[in-house]
Records
---
Amino acid sequence: MTNDSDPGDSNPSDPNDSEGTPGSDLEGKPADLADRVASGDLRLHELEVHVDHETAAAARRHLLERETDADLDAVGKYSFAAADAEPNIENMIGAVGVPVGIAGPVSVAGGAVEGEKYLPLATTEGALVASVNRGCGVIRESGGANARILKSRMTRAPVFRVADVTEAERVVSWVRGHTDGLRDVAEGTTSHGELVEVTPYVVGDSVFLRFGYDTKDAMGMNMATIATQAACDRIEEETPAELVALSGNLCTDKKPAAINAVEGRGRSVTADVEIDREVLEDRLHTTPEAIDAINTRKNLVGSAKAASLGFNAQAANVVAAAFLATGQDGAQVVEGANTITTTDVREAGETLYASVSLASLEVGTVGGGTKLPTQAAGLDVVGVRGGGDPAGSNADALAEVISVGVLAGELSLLGALASRHLSSAHEQLGR
């Protein structure tokens, strides 16, 4: 992706180098623009209408530095053109740098990806990348991990008001009898998405319809929202149902929800590996029996007692770091934490079977934050940037690689707990 400013000549966001768009009535230095915002002459969010994006961001930094005594010099140093971020942010002042590390390579035998892969991880948590990398080494010595996408559905669930349960039943019957027509209407809003299912739920005088879409290589939340609105318009035309909200929280987006853990959202993906006792003893300094016991008592029994939706050790850690590095929606780490880790001692104690099942991993390789240069570079590291051939294969591959990264993180943390090296590892790394 090109940058309108040459970083070798100057920082594209340096206030001293920024001037208004030629011919603008607001030409001048960012400090002057900040004065006009402070006086009420200009609105903070309207600056890009009058000046270029770099100048607008610099003016906001000036204003904030005056009003908060914050030093925003570091925030103002970023590696991409501010205009490139326009679809991703409002009232931009700069960017936050998060260190990016690399885990791998690790061999992945997936339905959409095959071979040695690296996984970029952006995090401020010391020891995380080292932990995942250690797990990748264990998987590599075991011949690699398997990974498969079991389901792909991005959901949006509007809620309608009806008079009573009798009317609710009529609406549900109409929807079930006209799914093909709703599919035509919904898919008429997009050239990529496909409506796969519409599942009704009735609670008194409320009718929820959970629409499920195959959104190909896009994470697809916006696609699903627009398509569902068109379908809702048709339902209101043809039935007595009145749309109350396009999202009725049965989707469920960016909130802990059992429906996502059970039915899935985004990609439902699983990965597994079988590890010899010798590898565990050499690399993790533990045994199959010890890891299996900890997984049972910690990840399964402990999580059940806590009424957790995730039965795992640290899945969200890896999901969050991979999301930041590849331009995914950070808030959807909530759904990514819907992960169950299982282990089993096999071959008369000579091997350990381990798996992770991520019920609702919401990822894409096109759209959203994937267009930002640094995040696009992260996708290039995995080899999945842009649309896949066939459509959806790149996002499937990304989900499979992330799932193997999660598996690596689980193995490493369980091994550290089994060998009682968790605290000493953090101490050694100075975290």
---
Amino acid sequence: MQSIADGDFEPVALEAEDFARMAQLVAQYDDLPLGTTDASVIALAERLGIEEVVTLDQRHFRTVRPSHVNALLLLPETP
């Protein structure tokens, strides 16, 4: 949060299409289960063409296949 306050990152608002995509992802991966937060990150990555995601919880992001790339590059990389 401090990094956002300092201007290091720019927040991006979710749009209606993002919520629709999030609902699709949650339904598609209902056995995972995929939560709202992870689904929103994936939907935004798809819309904005982002291929790298920073996360400490890589399980969901390794399982979900985004529509714009075969897989997201997860940072920090693990051996």
---
Amino acid sequence: MFWEQKIQYASLSDVGFRRQNNQDACVVTLAPDRDQWQHRGHLFVVADGMGGHAVGELASKMAVDTVPHTFDKLRNLHPLAALKTSLETANQKIYERGALNRDFLRMGTTCTTLLLGPMGAAIGHVGDSRAYRVRRQQIDQLTRDHSLVWELIQQRKVHPRDADRLYPRNVITRSLGPEPAVDVDVEGPMAVMPGDVYLLCSDGLTTYVNDSELGMIISELPPNEACRLLVHLANLRGGSDNITVVIVRAGDVPEGAQADDLPYPMPETESGGWGTFVLFCTFALLAIVGFLLLALTVNKLVGGGLLAAAIVGAAITWWRRPRQVPPEMVVAPRDDRSTNSTVIWRPYRTASARLTPEFLHGIAKIESELHRAAVDEHWPVELTERDEAFRKAQEALSGRKYSLALREYARSLDVLMVGLLWQRRQMQKENRTGKPATDKPATDKPTSENRPRPESATPPPANKS
């Protein structure tokens, strides 16, 4: 990845529809100049706290404060080692804080981090918050869940399709804080390609929005619009937990940039060479001789043996041939950057991120039901703006302009969700006071607590092309 390569990002954390306080937290730390970027890169962090009252909120806040601060101080370490040490330091601080108060004992938090720098993308991870990447209409899960369900699947004790039905998915096996030491997963580094989109999120999102839907939304919408739509969907489908989303999109490589600018050039894979060609010719000759013996002579046993040997030998040679590894899947070794060896990295799960009309019809159905409630219950929203967005979405869908349709449906949902949130606040006030509430919404736009942090581009303005 290049310093001049712009990125767009947005982040949004929402309390959800059933929680009283938000135990999630996130932070974005951008390198302010080229020198900082060369040594540290850009860091994105999501944490999902666990514990009653304010305990989980404190743990997640300590994680998003400690990880970037510690990472920035460890200039003498390789970025991957610094990332791992930062999460271990956060674990130690949360554990020590919990030991000071019986009410805070065994408090904890998940923590998933994304580092974008000269070497590419790297991830430090503990818990069941997730990191995804969308590339070429495919979404890859870059982290594995440290949860009971995933552990049982990996041990082949339960089939993936039955796991969520048989076991609670919210039981995690690893987190920051409960124990004095923690095992941190570090993934990568992985090459960053132009147009790659990365998603960090808490399980309040992935409980209600599946991988394919995640991929369709974050690949088609700008980061700030995608954040809002993802949170809206999770809330409308239940919203039983806090929801936190960070989306990062990599821009094009600057014109004129050279491969030599990369600190760790991608090694080329080996080809089969003349040896493989000669082997295949030998097996072909044996197969021809065996076939002729079978067809033209009485030595059918010998002919059959030669033919079988040729087929088996060719199959083994083909299977063991050197694979041509895609460039984006070849990365520098994890520990020794001076060697020429490579690490072949593969995602934990993949799904299609191709936008489908079926998904858009599902969004349209949700939007129509919400619109019906807005009309019936007289929500104070700008229905004219909603009607215009919905009409454009329907026209785009009919014309197979799926990206435009998704964007207009998202705009329509933005308008209606303002009314739904206002309605919920009114009901909560009535429940507390026993009297009908008469407040009116302060705005017909997404409120500040539900608006993503402004979409930003890096490098800073002085380095924009």
